[in-house]
Design a protein that fits this description.
Length: 265
């Protein structure tokens, strides 16, 4: 996403002005969203975000700034905004000499899609959502079906002043079907939304009709369910969710940033 010389220039600029350690994070994030309500398209959006963040360490103090101006001038501007100390040279010259010798790790791409994004057009995506809508209509009481397709494609570059350079690609896809069932004045809902770090091969692992059927059956189960008894009952917390409760109640207060700011108990 950026040249070696530009990244080296920014990091070396920070080091020469007194930073003990400098790290540059660059991200290009593409997203798509498609929403269908009762077989009618209600939303079809896409977008790209591209920017960088620079983090500098001065002992135990940390300074951070970010920008979406990815030119040499834009990146050096945030470096200048974070540095106040002057030092000796170390930047790359106009011929690319000097600076850092990056040790590049092979791009990970652990979540790269098996099929490229552009392999299937918008019609293919819309047809899959309509299959999910059809699968959700398991009974006449299903009055509304809404389905979503959410896609993310994130490219990441991390480089630091010690010469490390690594890249990664993270792709995620999610198919959601929400249903509303009604019988007289009684209204209940169903929801099913599988998602994985894969591309559109998600539809092979979770066939759209089955996703819709699961959501529709859930709505009908809720509609036909008898009222739960009221009263005081024991609460059983699973191992995984117990960790979430501990994290929210205590974990944030034990983070090093909270300790450094004397905000921890």
């Amino acid at each position: 996403m950026l040249t070696d010389s530009l990244v080296s220039d920014v990091l070396a600029y920070a080091r020469e002005r007194g930073a003990d350690f400098a790290e540059l994070y660059v991200e290009r994030w593409k997203r798509r969203a498609l929403r269908v309500l009762n077989d009618e398209v209600k939303e079809a959006t896409s977008g790209v975000e591209y920017g960088a963040g620079l983090r500098l360490f001065y002992g135990d103090e940390v300074a951070y700034a970010y920008t979406n101006d990815m030119t040499r001038e834009g990146l050096l501007e945030i470096a200048q905004s974070l540095t106040g100390l002057k030092g000796q040279g170390g930047r790359v010259d106009r011929r690319g000499r000097g600076g850092l010798d990056f040790r590049k790790a092979a791009p990970q791409g652990l979540h790269a899609p098996a099929v490229p994004w552009e392999e299937h057009d918008k019609r293919y995506r819309l047809d899959r959502l309509r299959e999910g809508q059809a699968g959700a209509r398991v009974a006449p009481e299903i009055r509304q079906v809404e389905s979503f397709l959410l896609e993310w494609d994130q490219e990441v570059l991390v480089a630091n002043s010690e010469g490390t350079w690594t890249e990664d690609r993270r792709v995620r896809t999610r198919h959601i079907v929400q249903t509303v069932a009604q019988d007289g004045g009684e209204v209940q809902t169903g929801f099913y939304g599988p998602g994985l770090s894969v591309g559109l091969e998600l539809f092979e692992r979770f066939p759209p009709r089955e996703v819709g059927r699961t959501s529709g059956e859930q709505a009908m189960t809720n509609l036909r369910a008898t009222p739960a008894p009221a009263g005081t009952y024991p609460v059983i917390i699973g191992n995984a969710f117990g960790g979430v409760i501990f994290h929210e109640a205590v974990g944030h207060l034990l983070e090093t940033t909270a300790v450094a700011k004397k905000a921890a108990p």
